[in-house]
User: Which sequence fits this backbone?
C-alpha cells in the first residue's frame, strides 16, 4: 500500500473526482456542493476521498460547520482547475470537428436534375472526399438563388448562367446545347434541328417563374430569329411528363435527355446553349464549400470527357 503523501504511480485521475473537489472547495460545504452537481452527498464524498487516496494527500479540514482547504488542497487547486479546463477544450475541439464533419452542406440546384448529370456527379465526388458530411439539396427559383446565398440559407448554388452579384463568387463549369423536346410521335422527332417556329405551334410548357433567367435567354434568342414564344407556366417537375403525354413541347438543356422515357424526342434548337456555374459566398473559406466547388470542377471535367455531345468545357472564370 502506498504511504500517505506518495501519489500512486500511473494512476489516472478521474475528472469526476476533480469536479467534486472543485465544487466543495468553492462551496465550502459538501451538501451545497452535491446539490450544485446534482448528485447525492455520499457519492460526492466518495469522489473526494478517491482523489485524496490517488494523490496521497488530505484536501480538506472537515468540521461540523463546513470544510476548508488544507495547505495541500490550496496547492493543488490551480492544477485541478487547469486539468478540467484542458479537458473542456479537448471536448469542444472534438465536438467542433464532429459537428463540422457531419454537418449538412446546403446546395441549391435546378431540379429535377439529369440522372448522372453535373449535380449527381458533383455530390458523389464531394462525398468521396468528405465521407461523413451530409448534403441537402434545395430547388430555388433563379431569382431566389443569390439572395439565399447572401442570407446564408444555402452554402452554394448551381445556376444556369446567373451573374455573380457583389459579395458572391462564381465558377463557370460546363456549356450544353438547348434542345426542343416533343413527344416521340411528333413530326420533328428524329430531325437534326428544330426551327424556333415549332415551339410556337403547340403549347410551350415552361417553368417561367422558377427559371426566369433561362426563359429570358430562350425568348430573346427566339425573338431574334423572328419567333415570339408564349409559354404555359408549368412546374419544372411536370414538364417532361406532360410533353410525353402529347400535351405540348418544351425547351430544356441537353442533359435532360439522359435516362428519360422513350416517349420523348430531343431535337437541337438553333444556335443556343446554356452555361452552368457554381456560385458561393466570396468570404466563405469553409472546407466544406471549398470541397464542393472542387467537386463541381472535377465533375465538369469528367462529364465533358465522357459526354462531349452534351457537355463542353468552360475555360473562363468569373469571380472567386
Assistant:
Amino acid at each position: 500500500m502506498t504511504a500517505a503523501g506518495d501519489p500512486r504511480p500511473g494512476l489516472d485521475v478521474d475528472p469526476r473526482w476533480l469536479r467534486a473537489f472543485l465544487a466543495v472547495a468553492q462551496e465550502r460545504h459538501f451538501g451545497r456542493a452535491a446539490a450544485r452537481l446534482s448528485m447525492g452527498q455520499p457519492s460526492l464524498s466518495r469522489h473526494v476521498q478517491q482523489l485524496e487516496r490517488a494523490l496521497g494527500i488530505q484536501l480538506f479540514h472537515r468540521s461540523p460547520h463546513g470544510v476548508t482547504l488544507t495547505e495541500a488542497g490550496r496547492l493543488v487547486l490551480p492544477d485541478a482547475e487547469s486539468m478540467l479546463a484542458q479537458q473542456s477544450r479537448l471536448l469542444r475541439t472534438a465536438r467542433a470537428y464532429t459537428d463540422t464533419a457531419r454537418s449538412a452542406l446546403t446546395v441549391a440546384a435546378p431540379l429535377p436534375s439529369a440522372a448522372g448529370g453535373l449535380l449527381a456527379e458533383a455530390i458523389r465526388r464531394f462525398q468521396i472526399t468528405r465521407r461523413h458530411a451530409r448534403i441537402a439539396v434545395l430547388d430555388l427559383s433563379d431569382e431566389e438563388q443569390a439572395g439565399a446565398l447572401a442570407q446564408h440559407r444555402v452554402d452554394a448554388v448551381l445556376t444556369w448562367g446567373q451573374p455573380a452579384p457583389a459579395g458572391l463568387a462564381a465558377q463557370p463549369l460546363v456549356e450544353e446545347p438547348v434542345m426542343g423536346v416533343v413527344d416521340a410521335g411528333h413530326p420533328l422527332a428524329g430531325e437534326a434541328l428544330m426551327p424556333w417556329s415549332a415551339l410556337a405551334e403547340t403549347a410551350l410548357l415552361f417553368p417561367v417563374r422558377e427559371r426566369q433567367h433561362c426563359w429570358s435567354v430562350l425568348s430573346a434568342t427566339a425573338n431574334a430569329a423572328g419567333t415570339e414564344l408564349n409559354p404555359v407556366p408549368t412546374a419544372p417537375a411536370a414538364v417532361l411528363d406532360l410533353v410525353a403525354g402529347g400535351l405540348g413541347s418544351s425547351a430544356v438543356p441537353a442533359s435532360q435527355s439522359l435516362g428519360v422515357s422513350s416517349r420523348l424526342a430531343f431535337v437541337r434548337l438553333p444556335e443556343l446553349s446554356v452555361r452552368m456555374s457554381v456560385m458561393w459566398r466570396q468570404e466563405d473559406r469553409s472546407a466544406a464549400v471549398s470541397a464542393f466547388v472542387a467537386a463541381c470542377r472535377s465533375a465538369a471535367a469528367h462529364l465533358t470527357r465522357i459526354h462531349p455531345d452534351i457537355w463542353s468545357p468552360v475555360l473562363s472564370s468569373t469571380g472567386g
Notes: The longest helix spans residues 71-102. The radius of gyration is 33 Å.
